Amino acid sequence: MLVITCPYCQEAREEEEFSYAGEAYIARPAVPEEADDATWGDYVFHRKNPRGWHWEQWQHVAGCRKVFAVKRHTVTYEIAGSWTLADGKALYLKEQA
Amino acid sequence: MSGYRIHRPGERINRQKPVSFQFDNVQYKAFSGDTLASALLANGVRLIGRSFKYGRPRGIVGFGAEEPNALIQLETGAHTVPDLKATQVELYQGLLAGSTTGYPSLDFDLKGLLGKFGRFMPPGFYYKTFMEPVKAWPVYEKYIRKAAGYGHAPVLPDPESYDHLHHHIDVLVVGGGAAGLWAATLAGRAGLKTLLVDEQSEMGGWLLTERRSRIDGLSGMDWVNQRLAELASLPNVSVLPRTTAFALHDLNLVQAVELLQDHLPLTERNAALPRQRLHKIRAHQVILASGAIERPLVFGYNDVPGVMTAAAGHSYLNRYGVAVGREVLVQTQNDAAYEAALDLAQCGVKVMLADARQGGAAAWRQQALKSAGVELLLGHGIAKVLGDKSVSGAQLVKLDGRNNQVVGSGPRLSVDTVLSSGGLTSTVHLFCHNGGRPVWNQQQLSFVCPDEGRDNIACVGAITGRWELSEALGQTHAAVAALLLGHGRGSSGNAPSVASEEVAAPRAIFRLPDGKPEGHGAKAFVDYQNDVAAADIHTAIRENYRSIEHVKRYTALGFGTDQGKLSNINGFAIAAEALGKPIAEVGTTTYRPSYTPVTFGALAGPHVGETFDVRRYTAMHASHDARKAEYEVVGQWLRPWYFPKPGEDLHAAVNRECLATRNSVGVMDASTLGKIDVKGPDAREFLNRIYSNAWSKLDPGKCRYGLMLDENGMVMDDGVTACLADDHFHMTTTTGGAARVYSWLERWHQTEWPELKVRFTTTTDHWATVAVVGPNSRQVLQKLCTDIDFDKDAFKFMDGRSGTVAGLPARVFRISFSGELAYEINVDANYGRYMWEEVMKAGAAFNITPYGTETMHVLRAEKGFIIVGQDTDGSMSPNDLAMSWAVGMKKPFSFLGKRSLLRSHTAGEGRKQLVGLLPLDPKVVLAEGAQILSNTDDTVPAAMQGHVTSSYHSAFLGRSIAMAVLKDGSKREGDTVFVWAHGKSVPAQVVSSVFVDKEGVRQHA
Amino acid sequence: MPKQGFQPFMESPLHHFKLDAEAQPRRADGRIWCNELPHLGYAVLRGDTAEAGFAQLVEQVTGLALPLKAGAVSQGPQGVLMWTSPDEWLLVSHRQRLADWTAQLDAGFAAQQLFAQTVDSSGGLTLAWLGGTQHITVLRHLGVYDFESIPLGHMVSTVLGKATVQVIRLDGDGVFVLFRRSFADYVWRLLRRAAQPYGFAVCQLEARSDHPLFAQLAAPQPLLVSA
User: Which part of the chain is the SoxA A3 domain (chain B) (predicted)?
Assistant: First the structure.
């Protein structure tokens, strides 16, 4: 079981208080009707599934119900940190750049 | 009769407390403090079981968790426990135990006859032998299963209770031997919240057996008692005996099971207390001090009862006052076993010691043994043990000093017991549970835990290969001091002082040679529990199983309840030799939880019986009970299913409830529907995005049915949402979808559209909802409420009003899931039962009829209303459900799922679509889930056209109806299809799924 | 107020256990003492602390300072106000007072055009008090949170068994466990089961006027909150 820090409750909590909410920072096409089937299909279905660091969303369902970003290693389960979605996004974009 | 009592100073049994017990229906006497194994040995009982494959006689080999043979069935009836190790069962007055193998009896075993042909039962025997014909396998299996296996599972409910306890601590120490005690002492002194667990009833580990060492000038057990007294004085330290840490998970989550009452007679157990407790421990720091287990050597007929490990023979003597034999041969390749030989000899046992090393042990040990009268046979190994159900002797051979070869014959000794020692194996299991790998130590001949390299896990003592007490304690002190420094704490005191002794190196030998090619001499067992002999490992490798994981699975090496604690290293070493590789390169198999077996009771803990799962109840539950409702579980809720009158079955009750509702008035508890308060200036815009239909023009006081799609365009939930004010909505969801939808709204709001000013609050539990349904429902409401105008034009279908019902503030919605005139009354749930009873009173004149979920299903199916999750399965778009009317393709924002509706696949031909089905025979109710075919051909595979999703007898129509999803169903009205179930094909006509009141006259009445 | 002819009665979520019938005066023994605080008023308060006037209005109406720290609980003789999320709080008080507060708050939010609201949850929640020397141990039997670490004057939202609960710790004497109506039967049975080894007893709860929660038990029933 993971131990995840909720950036809102500002405390490390056991995994059972959270539910996984998918890969973080997937951009919904701004004008979906202009996206072709392949682009839209990629957005709906394709996920990164890396062996290594992964940016993901967790929701503190048994706590404050907030969704936040977690950077987690899929092999070692190490968690580099957790951030509000806005704070995490800045870091995420910097990493992607 | 070989074993007998001998008085030993410091023995752990209490001679003042004799206890009697039964094994295989024979009464025996022993003492409090004995294990079942020591008690049996003291009574001269050797034959404990028959082996798994060959039915060979087997006896006790070890003295703890490593025991492979002595699996017993404890107690009977509801209290019976299968396959406990006799070596771990603490004896209590009146204990009942029996062997788990042997048919027709332990003494005369049929399988044992089969075992005589053992050379014809290679690894993979069953697969190889019973391969053809494939169809006969179930027959073979029946008999093979009968002959195989140990013990039997209890068939009665467990009368005892179990619980869980969570810990959040600084330091967990696993193992209460010298190293663990010292580690706990240092952590405790430093003020850290410390927990020490040990699987045995007493702390002390090997010091419970070994009595010669002195620590800080004290005897081993005096030092142990000094440690325990100090730990007891520290409020930040807890010590748990009888507690096995059986799993180590990520981030130092350790699970340990504590046997709270297993050591007590059944009659003395406190029913208010749990039998066992599962501890779930989160520790910043785990210190593994789980020690090492002595492994036996592998030699011919090393499984005859009376062959044990030297450590076992030593422990039975010093801990339990039991001499395991009168004439004992000790076979070793290391120095440690000399201690057992010495202690036995000093007790008057005739001891001979064969050492595989030409030079033997350190000179001082050899001298000590000779002084005690022990005959030493250096450079000798056992070729085979003699005897059948008990050891009667041993044939020795002379070994080459360098190569693992026989160079000459040796004496044939007449002994009643053989103790062997192949060196120690570090108990690395927990270290390896979450990815740690042990390393091969060629000096110590064991896979050991590395000293460093794991965050927040420290390994101390024999687990690191430090067999000598002085080294083990020195290393423990240094490792724990470093760890405390990491916590910003100092360590107090010096490492305990223990005199170091000269030790001769062990010989790297695992399988003693008998001078014959492997497979031709006496069977030499590696894994007793699975009857894996050295020759089987050679066979596996000859058959080209190269990876040790494959060898394990092919031969069954290391499977079983002992998890290979005695056999693994020997097996790896024999495989390495056969492969011509070093052991380090062969590696180990994977260590997985559990270290030792754990009861299901402990794992389940409090989550059994009435607290097995959440049962959610509505506020009206007592009313339903009073009216004798039958219930069904819907997403944890206990909902009335139907309300049978005396003599009615489900169908009779449902027919009556349906007709009463359609003809007069029915009432249903709709409290379980999910309810979400949606409020904010952007609430309307949010609904536009989350629902497929349009919400811009819904006025306050109006309700609308909404369809929720996922981004793939498929229906995920539905429900009616009422507009309370321009910025305020009362959303309802399906019963099972409430939590999912609530999360769904939060996620989209928080992740995609945080700029929208809207908030969601669950009100599912706040509102109790009474649905009053049927042509007379208006009159019922009018009797209860005077401040709402119920006139059909003033309060229309899909309107909502706030008012006072039965004297209570209420939200009333005129909505219908039945196609009838209907109202849903929502009140504060504390008044839910009151409101229900008031509705019953007001409806009495109309014979108001309570109904449950089954009638609800029939009524809605008659109208063709879907139930998400029953008529849909995550692959149904609104178009597939003929619900395009609920899709606002012109809405400005591209609502969830909209773009997917235009994808070629979603918009294409050949999709399954919702239809109605009328069986040609109106008396036949189709099976739900049945496949639909276009014709009656029995071509294989059949071209499957879809399946029945909902099917009922409609009392109102006097015939059966069904809903189904059918390929291109929207274009197939009028077709006849064939519904296949239970070996029969039933013809049915494809029709519209609206069976009753297509024009909607009734709900608008 | 109820109209003539109708006599509404209330049933709390734990009503069916008939706890009053077995309640006894609490004693200082090793047992776990427990009971429900029935029929209190609960409202979820939503708002934006960045909006001027929000916190002031809340304090002005309720006399309770808006807690801004995660898990913090504001206490007063008239009730408590707990932080549950950065934009969400829970108000607990006497039913009638809570109805008055929420009406005033919603009117105030509308008047000041604040993006804030109250949501009545009085029918959906209940509180149990759990006391005795081992009360934290009972929680440790059921939930993975480190309950010993909850500071006094704080609450934590976590999981007991398979139910989400809020544990409110105002003093060292006991904790308040807040849970949803539909889960009440399950949570009560779970608490009772976990407490059994220590001895489980239902105690009479006094309407102590100096206590932020027990004081709310005082006034007559039934009292209504608007729909």
Answer: 523-605
